[in-house]
Amino acid sequence: MYKSIEQFKIELKKIADKGFIESLRSSDTGIGYTIESCLGIEENNIPLADLGSDIELKAFRKDSASLLTLFTCEPKPEGGDRDRELLEKFGYKKRENLRQKELYCAINSSAFNPQTLRLVVEDDRIKVVSNKEEIGIYWVAQQLKERFLQKIPKLIVVKAEARIKDNGREEFHFNEAYLLKGFSFESFKNMVSKDIITVDFRMHLRENGTVRNHGTAFRIRKSKLEKCFQELVRLV
Fold first, then answer.
1. Which domain CATH number covers 223?
2. What pLDDT is stored for residue 112 in this prediction?
């Protein structure tokens, strides 16, 4: 549809010049659906031939404090024994379900969480440590870089001012947009150390004793997303 990033910039500028546009969907996903509809995009990826591949599009409210999952990446060492060890040492039991144990928690670098877990940033890796048990869980720089570039090698972020009309409908002014490219592990480590990026464990032990892991997620504040990338090009 769009032959170049320059053509896409022109369309974004036209949308920005329209001012506030009423949301085309009442749910929280209305902002993404509205900008995609304005751009004539049916899917979440934008075909831009001059950038070599489809580019993922994300739209955020400028005042959003919510978290976005960057990617999922399992720590080393590999294998089911790792998850079982985590559940045995740090899992908990909820009476209202049939799971033997579960471990659903956020981990940051500034303080140990209720499960006694914390992130530690080193030169070439990010570790999970505990103040209760010995644990050998970590991610190396190359592993995180490869996963990041596999998931989001390039990204276009559109930011909008949001307000509620008298009729209760939300509307958006899409007046800021960036093309983001490249991964910097140094920036990534810095954001982990400042709790801008956190990690979520999401796993449980089934009634039959097998492990169900929903994917260990690296999450970031939407307002800080551009800091993950080496190159930032303003489009609007």
1. 3.30.70.3570
2. 97
% of the chain surpassing 90 pLDDT? 58
CA pair distance 236, 221, nearest whole angstrom: 21
Q: Closest by alpha carbon to 203, among 56, 30, 72, 59?
A: 72
How is residue 148 written in tokens?
Answer: 């990041």
Q: Is 166 a residue whose pLDDT tops 80?
A: yes
SS (H, E, C) 24-44: CCCCCCHHHHHHHHHHCCCCC
Number of domains comprising the chain: 1
Q: pLDDT digits over 122-152, tens only? A: 989 999 999 999 999 999 999 999 998 888 8
Domain hosting 12: range is 5-234
Tell me the C-alpha distance between 75 and 138, whole Å: 5
